[in-house]
Specification:
The protein is of the alpha/beta class. Helix content is 37%, strand content 25%. Helix 3 runs parallel beside helix 5 and helix 4 packs across helix 5. The radius of gyration is 21 Å and the shape is globular. It starts with a strand and ends with a helix. One of its GO terms (biological process) is peptide transport. It is a peripheral membrane protein. GO terms for molecular function: ATP binding; ATP hydrolysis activity.
Length: 307
Amino acid sequence: MTEKLVEVKDLEISFGEGSKKFVAVKNANFFINKGETFSLVGESGSGKTTIGRAIIGLNDTSGGDILYEGKKINGKKSKEESAELIRKIQMIFQDPAASLNERATIDYIISEGLYNFKLFKDEEERQAKVKEIITEVGLLAEHLTRYPHEFSGGQRQRIGIARALVMKPDFVIADEPISALDVSVRAQVLNLLKKFQRELGLTYLFIAHDLSVVRFISDRIAVIYKGVIVEVAETEELFNNPIHPYTQSLLSAVPIPDPLLERQKVLKVYNPDQHDYSVDKPTMVEIRPGHFVWANQAEIARYKKEL
């Protein structure tokens, strides 16, 4: 029986108040099993990063629950609870240039979490931990005395990964960790993430907009459109049997390596007006085992007929 590590129930995240209130995420429901890579996919501005930042506590939530190991973690927490969560949940940010302190050496950047949570007995142990993780991510011990601007984008992202993993977290939120990198470097970083998952038993929430990348790394995928999660399924199930029209349109845009097939491909354009939710309201429904779709009763009946 797989154990749920993270559970998100009816999550709503909004910004501003009154007439200026903007709801960025609504009715988000999903769970992440221990040891799996769960991907959140959608176009820019769909609310993917907003959800990731809410799980780690950087964004406040306006409704719903975020559970970690069965305990609610959004809302008020004691200092001890917050510290424990920061140690267990780490984030790898999208832009390695913006998320690293330009004035600090790599040694200090990686050690910051160790200092804050006193995760070493003495200076010797701290140095050993930092040297071990920097070597693990494919950099050299002599790089520790340098500064972020002396590295390429791919190397900076490796430093970001080292900074997150030196804390020995259980759960890592990877927010578009490869979108700022060259194609050749992307595969290296993805392989690095998979290697750490195998060796340390990590659980990932992988946030991305590129479905071909997501297929390579994910166990299960959630598709999000304008703050609403519209479909959740295992990776191959989602690619082979996309049910929601928005998922179908996203998959139709994935390039095919064969130029002849690519030319014959028909792009599907998603029109949100095709859903009539004025009376018959939608909910998250399990249409096939482990395959969930955001739909109302009329749509469920149609989707089931099409399967």
